Amino acid sequence: MKGRGQTEDKKIRRWEDGSALIITVLIVTILVALVVEFAYEVYIDTSSLSNWANAQKASLIAKSGQTLSAKYLEEASKNYNTENEVELPVERDFGPDTKLTIKIEDADAKININSILIENLKGETLHLTALQKLFESLNINPKLALAIADWIDTNSEPREGFSGSEDNAKNTYLSTLDELKLIKGIDKDVFKKISPYITVHEDRTRVNHFDTLININTAKLPVLMSLHKDMTEALAQRIIDYRETSPIETKGQLSNINGMKELVAVLYLPISFKSSNFRITARATVNEITRIIESDVDTSMRIQFWREE
What we know:
Layout: H1 2-76, E1 85-88, E2 98-106, E3 111-112, H2 126-137, H3 144-152, H4 188-194, E4 198-199, E5 214-215, H5 221-225, H6 233-245, H7 251-255, E6 271-272, E7 277-286, E8 289-298, E9 303-308
Parallel strand pairs: 3-4, 5-6
Antiparallel strand pairs: 1-2, 2-7, 7-8, 8-9
Helix pairs in contact: 2-3
């Protein structure tokens, strides 16, 4: 009897020892899991804090790019030039893994979509005619210009030849070019073709069809061709060739170009020889975190549009 009792006691102790070991392993496993989870959360929080700090720094650097552009435009506005786009050199060192690029585009080298209708958004202007001519020169259905007008105007009647153009229309001015993608008939390929030659001015407090000018010195060939039905590709190219030798400063000089004498007084759009409106894009990257600031400004540095992403 005594031997049997000792055997059972040993079994019980072994069972208790085994149970204790299992419980110990479970506790250790739970503790390890908690430590790993805590360490991961700390890593995530640290990474998030680092990304936030990098994003803030990138935002400030992009804003400094906008300020640098303002100084450049102040000087550039004093001279005639033929550049419609420029990337400013950035000489300042912002630190390791940090980069700033600044691109300035001449908005007056493009047709302002918001000027195709007069200020009450009912009547049409010659900007609409020019836009149709632009589309035609790009081998795009010119009736798409009417669809854009329907999207902007305040009535609900589609223009002839373009059904569905009033569906979900905005019925006011465009804020960004990207809104054009919402218009029936303007797909990705069409947008890619037309976007280099058009712009929008968000600030409409003073803009009408007389004060959105086309800079004859910076407008690209398709925009030049849009200025009149008789403006051929060859004639537009002669303007470009002339201004590459010397910027055009007066209508008299423009008239001296072969074929332009008869057209100067009847162009669809008013022209200028210096630009007043520009699109600035400042892109700053800090440790792979990027911030982009886009703005539309005039030479008095009045901001018409500002977007950060």
